[in-house]
């Protein structure tokens, strides 16, 4: 019989990130349908998927390819009141570094890729990680060269692809001078549109 393989749908890379806070860039907040079986479907039939490029430590940003990691939130955008503040409101406030007053319209797209830090816990499946929280990290902007912007734009386009099954969860740190991102690289090929159907404007 022909060879057959079941590849489960996944959004994130197998992760080598340790639990705790890690440098990242927010690349996109994608609009997706909420699966009908999810608890939040009734109140939020559509969700936001927050897509990040993540590293273990800042000094690897220009030396090592990042991990594709993402987290979801409902599309509710409400501050704390009788109910806890929504995740989308909390994360947007954290990235802006301020509270968002009632009636203000916020659009993070012009700011992307946004330098930030993500708080990670290891998932039930030991190969993967969960993003629990996000905070602004403006000091990481020093790494955001034109070359890195181009690489992140191309990297974002890969989020619709399944992770490489051969990718080992533990990634060795490349030696200085041998990093694929640490030397001047040829211009990347034109990026295909990301899974959400929109190309980054940055």
Radius of gyration: 18 Å
- The DSSP helix count reads 2
Main sheet specs? 5 strands, antiparallel
User: Strand order within the widest sheet?
Assistant: 3-2-1-4-5
Measure the end-to-end span. Answer: 48 Å
Q: How many β-strand runs?
A: 5
Backbone structural class: alpha+beta
Q: Identify the overall geometry.
A: globular
Average pLDDT reading: 82
Helical residues, percent: 10-25%
Uncertain segments:
165-196
In short:
The protein is of the alpha+beta class and 202 residues long. It has helices spanning 87-96, 146-156; strands spanning 20-33, 46-54, 67-74, 114-122, 129-136. The relative contact order is 0.22.
Describe the structure.
- The protein has 202 residues and is an alpha+beta fold.
- It has a domain at 20-159.
- Helices cover 10% and strands 24% of the residues.
- The chain has two helices and five strands, in the order βββαββα.
- It has a five-stranded antiparallel sheet with strand order 3-2-1-4-5.
- A hairpin with a 6-residue loop joins strand 4 (114-122) and strand 5.
């Amino acid at each position: 019989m022909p060879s057959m393989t079941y590849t489960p749908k996944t959004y994130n890379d197998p992760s080598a990130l340790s639990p705790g806070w890690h440098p990242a860039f927010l690349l996109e907040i994608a609009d997706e349908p909420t699966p009908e079986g999810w608890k939040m479907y009734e109140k939020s039939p559509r969700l936001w998927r927050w897509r990040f490029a993540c590293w273990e430590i800042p000094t690897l940003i220009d030396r090592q390819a990042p991990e594709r990691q993402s987290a979801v939130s409902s599309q509710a955008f409400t501050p704390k009141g009788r109910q806890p503040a929504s995740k989308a409101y909390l994360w947007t406030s954290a990235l802006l570094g301020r509270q968002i007053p009632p009636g203000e319209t916020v659009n993070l797209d012009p700011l992307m890729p946004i330098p930030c830090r993500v708080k990670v816990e290891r998932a039930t499946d030991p190969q993967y990680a969960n993003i629990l929280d996000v905070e602004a990290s403006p000091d990481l902007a020093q790494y955001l060269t034109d070359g890195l912007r181009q690489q992140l734009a191309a990297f974002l386009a890969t989020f619709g692809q399944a992770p490489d099954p051969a990718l080992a969860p533990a990634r060795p740190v490349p030696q200085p001078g041998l990093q694929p991102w640490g030397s001047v690289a040829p211009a990347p090929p034109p990026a295909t549109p990301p899974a959400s159907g929109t190309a980054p404007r940055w």
